[in-house]
Write a structure and sequence with these properties.
Layout lengths: L2 E8 L3 H8 L9 H5 L2 H10 L3 E6 L14 E4 L3 E2 L14 E2 L2 H12 L6 E3 L6 H11 L8 E7 L9 H16 L6 E7 L16 H13 L1 H4 L4 H8 L7 H8 L5 E12 L2 E10 L2
Parallel strand pairs: 1-8, 2-7, 2-8, 3-6
Antiparallel strand pairs: 1-10, 3-7, 4-5, 9-10
Helix pairs in contact: 1-5, 4-6, 6-10
């Protein structure tokens, strides 16, 4: 049977992708950002997942105001990198896993979560930057990837508790798939940041540290935090952190922290990264 072997979170800051693409990772400004992923690259090379289920938010590339699904699962064979205004990132196309994705869609929808099934879409930096941080610049990504887009851009986004419970349904779906697959769940976005308005540039280290600790030790309680607390404490884009709760809901209550990285600033954003594994 398929199994969830690990959970991973990371920010998906577009400037981080640009630093990789333009060969700037060794510059003084960027060195401490990328140093926090040295262990992660070794870890994932040894873990060798067969599939990554990657939760991210689309930035008006695959979806726009004409159609905004709350949860959208990519069920295609392949997904191309999107042109976000300056050409697509020089990264490989994603190879999907349509059989597992379709199985997940069926199981999760029948568990009363409404998913939008998408058979054609391009993927933006929200998805490709995390892959670059963990895998570098390969000719092809070393595993299959199922993109899972979550609306945290246009109000109303899903609640933290909805995302946490979705993670539980997601794990049940994966573990009922009749093939021996190692599947990782990734939650991306965050941490505290705001890109516009009077509070543009906001970073709240205290909130971020507390969020990380609660995500590890008491995720069910953290999942009850209302939207307004994310906006007030972590900025308007801090709501991206609900996607980390999807990952956490797919793991056991007790987890081992394999790696933890936090750095500010990365561009105008607080960057966070976790690798978690079940204790059993």
């Amino acid at each position: 049977m398929a199994r969830v072997t690990a959970g991973l979170t990371t920010s998906h800051i577009p400037a981080v992708g640009a630093a990789i693409d333009l060969g700037k990772t060794g510059e003084d400004y960027w060195k401490p950002v990328f140093a926090g992923y040295d262990f992660s690259k070794q870890w994932i090379a040894e873990a060798k997942p067969d599939v990554i289920f990657l939760c991210y938010n689309d930035h008006a590339t695959a979806f726009d105001l004409k159609s905004i699904p709350t949860f959208a699962i990519g069920c295609a064979e392949e997904f191309q990198p999107a042109d976000e205004g300056w050409g697509p990132r020089p990264v490989p196309a994603l190879q999907g896993h349509p059989e597992l994705a379709s199985h997940i869609a069926q199981s999760v929808i029948q568990s009363d979560f409404d998913l939008t099934v998408v058979n054609e879409m391009e993927v933006d930096h929200g998805l490709t930057v995390p892959l670059s941080l963990l895998f570098g610049q390969p000719d092809a990504w070393p595993c299959k990837i199922i993109p899972f887009a979550v609306n945290v851009v246009v109000y109303p986004p899903p609640s933290g508790s909805r995302c946490f419970n979705l993670g539980k349904a997601l794990r049940e779906a994966i573990e009922s798939y009749d093939e021996d697959l190692s599947v990782q769940i990734w939650g991306t976005g965050g941490m505290s940041h705001q890109l516009q308005g009077e509070r543009a540039g906001l970073i709240n280290k205290e909130f971020d540290a507390d969020f990380l600790e609660r995500l590890i030790k008491n995720p069910a309680e953290l999942a009850e935090m209302p939207h307004i607390d994310y906006v007030r404490e972590a900025g308007s884009e801090g709501i991206e952190l609900v996607m980390w709760l999807i990952m956490r809901g797919a793991l056991d209550e007790a987890v081992d922290v394999i790696h933890k990285h936090y750095h500010v600033p990365a561009s105008n954003t607080a960057l966070g990264h976790l690798i978690l594994e079940n204790q059993t």
